[in-house]
Amino acid sequence: MVTSLQSFFVKVFKTYTSSFLKLVPYLVLLFVFLTFVFFAQYSVALYLVLVPGTFFRLFFNIIGAVVYTFVTFMMTMAMIKVIASKYTTNVFPKVFKNIKETFFITLKNFFTLALLILPALLTYIVYFIGKMGYLSPYALISLFLLIIVVGILFFFWFSFVMVVLPLENSKGLGSFAKSIQMVKGRFGLVFTRLLFLFLFLFVTFFFYNEVAFMITQGTLFYLLFMFIFVIFAIPFYPVGFTVLYLSLQNEDMKKEALEENLLA
C-alpha cells in the first residue's frame, strides 16, 4: 500500500529540512548563473555594438530563454541527485562533480527536456496569434482552455522525467516512457499528492506575501523578503517529486519481491 497523503508530507518535510543545507551551494550557483545570463542578455553595451532592431532583440531573447532553460534543468537535476542521496544512502555527491554530471545529462537530453515546456510554448503562440487579431475571442478562450487541460495531463503524466534522467540513467524519450510507467494505474494518487504540494506552496506564499507587504509597506525590503521566500521555496519542487518517485519505486520493488516469493 502506498503511503498516505499525511505520510507523504511528513517525508517531504523531513527530507527538505535534512537536505536544505546541502542544497544551498546549488541555490547560490543557480542564482549566480541566472543573474549572469540576465545581465549578459540585456547588457546595454551589447546592444550598442549591434544594430538595434527587432530581429536582434528577438534573437537574444531566444538565446537567453534557451540558456535559462538549460541552467534550470541542470541545477534542478543536480538538486534531485542530492535529495535522492539523502533519502536513500545519506551519502552526498560532491557539488562540482554533481553539476558536471548533470551538465552532460542536460546537454545530451536537452531537446527531450524541452518537450516539458511545450504547453507553455503553445500558450505563448496562441497569445501572440490572438494579440495579432487572427482569432475571435471565443476561439481564443477555447484554445486556452484546451491548452490548460492538455497541460495539466501533460504535466502529471511526465512529472518524473527530470527525476528519471539523473537517477535511472535513462536517455531521451525513454525517460518519458519511464514516467508514464510510474504514473500508469495511479494517476489519481500522483495527482492528489502533487496538487496538495502546490496548494501548500500557494497558500504559504499568499500569507507570506501579505505579512511581508504589511511589514515593508512595499519598499525595497519587500523584494528582499520575496527573495528569501524564493530561496526556501525552490527546493520544494525537486524534494516533492523525488520523494514521491522513490516512494512509488519502493512500492514497486516490494510488489515484485512479494510476487517472486509467491511463485517460488
TrEMBL record:
Keywords: Membrane, Transmembrane, Transmembrane helix
Membrane-spanning parts: 23-50, 62-84, 105-129, 141-167, 187-208, 220-246
Domain of life of the native organism: Bacteria
Keyword Transmembrane helix: yes
Name of the protein this chain belongs to: Glycerophosphoryl diester phosphodiesterase membrane domain-containing protein
